[in-house]
Automatic annotation (TrEMBL):
Organism: Triticum turgidum subsp. durum (Durum wheat)
Keywords from the UniProt entry: Repeat, Transit peptide
Pfam families: PPR
InterPro entries tied to this protein: PPR_rpt, THA8L-like, TPR-like_helical_dom_sf
PPR repeat feature ranges: 79-113, 114-148
Name assigned to this protein: Pentatricopeptide repeat-containing protein
Length: 199
């Protein structure tokens, strides 16, 4: 298996040596590469620089490969933010099988998300149209040991506007947990708004 430094030499170093850059690699990635070179002696510095590199690679198809490489490195420790970024990228690209694999890895390493991260993940999967996965993450959020917060529920409710049946279910859960709070429902159509503001 190739290490992250070997990968860096094969993918990023050629761009710094004046050769034609690989398609899709931007200037942000190259600057992160320079940071990695500076921090090479310090393992913690390499770990931080690698996290920055992964953040820039999130939009590229190389991220799943690098995800596997990073998890095999000696300095690797399970990180909620790495998994969050992976799940966001997989949701945007509608990769269901890979999402299930990352979720299994996350569970096997004992990584716990906070309520805000759960809300963001459910919303991203709702926006991508992957409602089944979004509801699986929602059920996991409900069974989380962390106390529930109202803001993640509001984020999820906003993402479920195109799905009124599911939105009603989540709304009922929200009102059971927070009985004194109000949920604003969107108008049924834009014509309701137009009628209200007509002179």
């Amino acid at each position: 298996m190739r290490s992250l430094l070997e990968l860096k030499r094969e993918v990023i170093t050629p761009t710094l040596q004046g050769r034609r850059p690989q398609a899709g690699l931007g200037r942000g990635i190259l600057s992160r590469h320079q940071e990695m070179q500076i921090a090479h002696q310090d393992r913690q510095g390499v770990a931080e620089s690698t996290k920055l590199l992964l953040k820039n690679l999130r939009r590229h198809k190389m991220l799943p490969f690098i995800y596997g490489v990073v998890r095999r490195e000696i300095w690797y420790r399970p990180d909620m933010y790495l998994y969050r970024d992976m799940l966001h990228m997989l949701a945007r690209n509608k990769k269901v099988d890979e999402t299930r694999q990352v979720w299994a890895d996350l569970k096997s390493e004992g990584v716990l998300f906070d309520q805000h991260t759960y809300g963001d993940i459910v919303r991203v999967f709702c926006d991508a149209g992957l409602i089944d996965l979004a509801m699986e993450f929602y059920e996991d959020m409900r069974s989380s040991p962390e106390p529930p917060l109202s803001l993640p529920f509001r984020v999820i409710l906003k993402g479920l506007i195109p799905y009124p049946e599911l939105r009603e279910k989540i709304k009922q859960d929200f009102l059971e947990l927070f009985p004194d709070m109000i949920v604003y429902d969107p108008p049924d159509s834009l014509s309701d708004i137009d009628d209200e503001f007509r002179f």
